[in-house]
Amino acid sequence: MGFLFMRILLSISLILGAILSLPAEEPDFSQAKLWKKNATPSSSMTISRNTAEDALQFEVKFKPGTDFWAYPEFKLPQGIPRGKKYLVFEAKLDQQEPAGGCKYALVMFGYKGGIVAWSPSPHWQTVVIDLDANKINRAAVKCLRIGANPQSPQMTLTLRNIKFLEQLPKKDGKRTAELIHSTAPAMLFIDEEPLQFTVSERVPDLSYEILNYHDEIVAKGPVPESGSFILPRLPRGYYRIILKAPKVQFHGAASFSVIPDPDRRRQNPDSPYSMDAALSVIGTAHVYQRGDKEKSMRFFVNLARMAGVTVARERTHQDLSEKVKGVYDWNFYGLAPKLFSEAGIALSSTWHNFAFWAREKGHKYTYDLMIPYQFAQQLAKNFHNQIKFWEFWNEPEYSFWDGTAWEFASTTKAAYLGFKAGDPEILVTNGSFCFKPEEDWIAMETLQNDLAGYCDIFNIHIYHPMKEYPQLVRGWKKLQQQHGMSALPLWVTETGTYAEGVPEDTDRYDNRRVLSHEQEMIWAEFVPKNQILLQSLGVARTFTFVLPPMHEFKGMKAWGLIRYDYTASPAFTAFVTLTDQLSNAEYLGELDFGAGIRAFLFQQPDSTKTIAFWSESELDKLDNRPNGIRPTNKFLHKISLSENQPVRLTDIFGTTRILHPRNGKIETASTRYPAYLSGITSPVPVKKQPVKAVTGKTSTSNMDKTIVLRIVPDEKFLLNTTRSNLIIPWKVKQHPLKLQIINFSKEKKQGKVTVEGGTLNGLPAELAIGPFETKEIEFSLPSQTHTRQYRFRFGGVFNHRAISQLSLPVIQYGEISNAPLFAQANKPEKWRKNSSGSMNISWDAKEKAVRFDVEFSPGGARRVYPELLIPGGLPADTIGISFDIKSNLKAKPQNSFVMLVKDQQKQTDLSHKVGYTPSLGKWQENFIGTASLTPQEIHLLRIGMNPTTDKVTFWIRDLRLHRTVK
After folding, report:
1. How far apart are CA 259 and CA 409, in angstroms?
2. What pLDDT is recorded for position 1?
3. What pLDDT score does 204 carry?
4. Bridge-partner residues for 641, per DSSP?
5. Which of 811, 847, 533, 878 lies closest to 688, judged by CA?
6. CB 493: neighbour CB atoms within 10 A?
């Protein structure tokens, strides 16, 4: 019996083992009844089978004014089947307003398995998700959600062929772009050049079709067995080649362009249309010809020449040029300037990288201002006649610079003097500012330091949506005017867009995301619009970013007018057409062609006129969004022009045709893509006069620029989050500072340092400073027992001439407990809900704080910024607020802001955003200065974050008001 019993037990265990070792059953995603509704609570969702498409269909209607999100759910109780490495499905998404796009589109491996973005399209597409590459936690996957956050109140998501796969099926076909080659650089043919191509593989019964950008067939024919074929002559334009064969499937298309001969074009060195090349620092510019960097870079320089570029932008850093102090090696950064100079293209170059030996320990700025002076001097000397414009530093608001605003100003002055010492004729720009002007605290404080005397050109970057351009340029010009720089020309040395969204295609090895044809067309639309709009607003020169291909943000953002296969994108061809049509023309103003149309008038050297025009699209009107926009709508409008003579109509890619007048009118159509009417002889009324791009200089000739002041604070001092204010905590009783006076001249100087804003102990009545000498004075800030905000302005007179000022903004606050509390801040009912998720606000007696519990919809936006009304606004003498915050977060939120809002509505464009230090489990004290604001205009306060988790709890206590005590 015992033996029999043991055998029965063994049999049962073997059976159970076999059952348990069976792989998870393949989920049947095709059954509509197995899918669960999951959308905005107030929405309605219908799940059904679309028999015509053999697919699942999810129709969703949202209530206006709510968050729009829909992520239907399929339960996976056994998780992802064992051994599966990919999720593959086909999808298309239609919505009520197709042009609106989606805020987000995600595949969620619930509940904690991971999230992956995808790019919806109104057309069928195959989505492939590599589970390993996206670090999907298979053990945590209990359901699958596929959906989006549309911008319209109705959407239809259609899905089919959803499968988990062990391996991707071998692609049954060939990539057309990999098979077609030509000897033309970047597939760019000049006028009348034979359009000859070669197919690298022999395919029976192979034929080709040539499509223009309207997807019209303009040529077709068989491909000879040799693989080589010549097309009939085609007009200028951007074309795509489609291959066809009975037994072979081809994917995608190859492209080529026909462009004007650059050698026959009249070049204008003052043309505003410029390009950021960055050949020295972008690796793809070095490997076009493997093993031959010079030939590779010469390829790109030639492309810039073909594009009609007369001024390009480069990088020249100290890291590789002066590895050892005083030993200069220009081999790495010297090649690009040499090649551009040989091609007749002037350069503007930026320097934003100190050598390691030159840096303050633990920082990116330098410990000695003689270092930037001497290196700038060597740059100007060595690249004389090659680099015409110099920029000291790039985007100091970001991680390129980790010093203060006043430190940046002092270093800028030293570099400027070095450039001028090396080449007095060189023109110097400030380091490019890149935030919105009203939020750019680094810029606002830097400009307080008489920077007008240390730059010849004012320089910014713009990557904001085009609808914001007028406000951005107006804001920057206002700052120029406030700081004596209104006579300086305004340059935009980098500009680009995020409107196309995350790259939705892949390259030949499926290991790099690249832009689809539709995404490339958004960029083509952007390039001329961007350049012309900024020119119309008075920008003197704009540099499109960037010529070679590159990626940012872990491959999720693709840049480059040239692709990774070294062919030209349509955006490149659009740039060629822009320079061909307008480089030699003078801007005369904006026209009125009716609602939805932008039109700009130019005069050519022969006195005829050209009109650049287009229809406004989502690109002109909408914010950027993760999934981007697509050119699904042409935005067709009719336009009419009084003219008795034939005119030329040139489209975005250079294709030209003659339009003849009828009854004294020229009639044509406007679309989202810019076009040009040229040869106009009749008068054209201008609606908006041009904003002239200035080319003057500032009136600082009487200033002795060679004496530069620098402040070196003690380590006990704190900085605000924007590095634009020196903060003295109430606990610090001693406030020592060091003031450096540097003489960047060959003569001895005698004089004194002056200070406005308070009395300082330790400043000498007079001092002498020798040639290229640095003197250091130690002094202390006066002790304060109460909260106070003030600004010291250091200046002086040496050899009977005034020197530039150094501005030091200080916030010194008394003991926190002495500052009055916001009485209403400790009352939960006074806080207004403001979140993309569900939110509960309560009083936590244990923490003695207001508690905020928030839960976000999976895959939705994670935004929580509860609001506190401030009736009557903040008192006029407010210099800051302080508060304690605690959260249950274990990882830093994506953003954490205090928003000081000018009204009581949800208008974020009327708010000032200031970052604060977030909490990770412990109480964190924060002080937010209100410098540069008008406190009485602040009627609403938001404190919150963008966490990285779907649930967050945080507490706020002791919200205090800090007012100046006189």
Report:
1. 45
2. 47
3. 94
4. 666
5. 533
6. 24
